[in-house]
Amino acid sequence: MSNRPRPLVAGNWKMNGLSNALHELAAIASGVSGFEGAVDALICPPATLIATACNALRGTPLMIGAQDCSQHVEGAFTGDISAAMLADGGARWVILGHSERRHGWGETDTDVCRKVGRSLEFHLSPVVCIGETEEQMLQGKTETVLRQQLQTSIPDRIAAAQITVAYEPVWAIGTGRIPVLSRIADLHGFIRQVLREKFGASGGAIRILYGGSVKPDNVGDIARIGDVDGTLVGGASLKAGDFLAISTSFASR
Ligand code: PGA
Fold first, then answer.
1. For residue 42, how far is its CA from the centre of ligand 1 (angstroms)?
2. Residue 25 to residue 45: CA distance in whole angstroms
3. Would 166 disulfide with which of 2, 13, 232, 243, CB 3.0-4.6 Å?
4. Which of 24, 132, 168, 188 is catalytic?
């Protein structure tokens, strides 16, 4: 196991969490202190909580990230939040190209690619999400879709070490359904191969997270799959107990 990258357990709170959720973040931070060195833990709360969370959690190992950023540096983009603003608030990470952005807001691979470039410019570590829809899966197009997303959502001229990839089948997000374990293993192997084609040997060190309906009761088997270097968790990241149980599975694999 020693040559595998340290796993990353990342929570995507989506549009959930008011200021009273800071208690939950504090509970997560205190729990993950026990895993320091074995697991990297990240929560991406709504943007409104980032600065307060970063101040409250200073000195703890829990890292804070954002769920999206603008592809532009600054200017007349009402409602958008720039990478510089997120970094200024204390965020160190940003989720980009989540399926809810791609499918709900029509974000293209080109948009995601620009956002990845912008996030790196402002020293945020991007978690680039890819994944096929149910229709694409049923049509046998999964590998084609994943290859296309990897090739065009991630800039070519960056250091592989700067990015993390999250494979999230769209049909598995929030549905309680996950692919069979052998399929997760095959697809993570496929993603690894495409990353090596794109980045050479350094593509072998990029962390590939699995996401989509990960819960304490199914994560044990997923955590043991080769090339699963962590997880991106939605619903189950909102409760400290569930997030910590998931982290335990990765710490003890
Ligand atoms: P879920 O969401 O864990 O609730 O399925 C995962 C995600 O959207 O990142």
1. 14
2. 9
3. 232
4. 168
Is 100 considered catalytic here? no
Which residues, judged by CB distance below 6 Å to any ligand atom, belong to the binding site of ligand 1?
Answer: 12, 168, 173-174, 211-214, 232-236
Asked if 194 and 173 touch (Cβ cutoff 8 Å), the reply is no
> Distance (Å, rounded) from C-alpha 131 to C-alpha 122?
26
User: For residues 90-103, b (16+ Cβ closer than 10 Å) or e, as one string?
Assistant: bbebbbbbbbbbbe
Pairwise CA distance, residues 126 & 96, whole Å: 6
Catalytic site includes residue 123: no
CA of 225 to the centre of ligand 1 (A): 19
The pLDDT tens digits of the residues spanning 48-64 come to 999 999 999 999 999 99
Report the distance separating Cα 207 and Cα 100, nearest Å. 22
User: Which one from 24, 98, 107, 188 is the annotated catalytic residue?
Assistant: 98
Q: Which residue has the tokens 């943007």?
A: 47
User: Ligand 1 pocket: which of 12, 96, 237 to mutate (most atoms <8 Å of CB)?
Assistant: 12
pLDDT of 1 > 50? The answer is no
Distance between CA atoms of residues 228 and 209, nearest Å: 6
Which amino acid makes up residue 39? Answer: V
Q: pLDDT band at 253, cuts 50/70/90?
A: confident
Nearest CA to ligand 1 atom 7: 234
pLDDT digits (tens, 9 = 90+) for 167-208: 999 999 999 999 999 999 999 999 999 999 999 999 999 999
pLDDT digits (tens, 9 = 90+) for 76-124: 999 999 999 999 999 999 999 999 999 999 999 999 999 999 999 999 9
